[in-house]
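User: For my dataset I need records formatted as: sequence, then structure tokens, nothing else. Please produce one.
Assistant:
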Amino acid sequence: MDDGFTYDDNWASVYQKYTDMRGRIAEAHEAVAFLERHCSGGTALELGIGSGRVAIPLSERSVRVEGIDNSDSMLKLLAGRTKAIKAWQGDIADFTCANRYDIIYCIYNTFTLLLAREAQIACLRSAASALSQKGILVMEFDVPALNGFIDGQKTTTLLVDHENTVIRTDVHDSLKQNLVSAILWFSDTSVRRLPQPIRYVYHQELDTMAECVGLELAERWGDWTGGAFTQASKRHISVYRRAASSA
């Protein structure tokens, strides 16, 4: 199964700068602290490890981190930054591991890059099978923001500074819960178009899919620092563990 989006060379060449501009590099220490606290120096597997934004600082805290990514371009970035993390190219919707992990995490909207519900359920099933007996699965992604569409289309300004203007365009397919999105990045005299289609998921649906593979919700937060998840939250961090009936 390979029903998902892959970050190509075009994305990989600017990924570090883009995530830094969006505040994700600075935020990484909060995610690392959360993950470390939940695995206590054990073993971790990142689904969609990318360039190691979170995996590398987590591995520096006595956590043995491994990772999977479907993008060879992103894995090359990771390999250029560290030799301490074992990572391999694979499909996060369909993988098997010889090891069992204390924590498996899929963050920064990576899960929504799987563009079909079946692929998303398969990802959860693969993760559940790779967890240790008391292991947990941590998911982070945005709450769907579907206001402001006109005739199924929307344009959003993500960033404006003295050098850059970043705009996202979305076309909404409500039947498939897909947003066919593209980032338009204007910088000086250059323009980049970076595609990023997703299948959005509401947290209630995620809970139901998790239940289908023998997992149950243990915690849900509005941010990495333990803020409450409320109606106003723009994202969530959800923690799952094996259901009592399947433990």
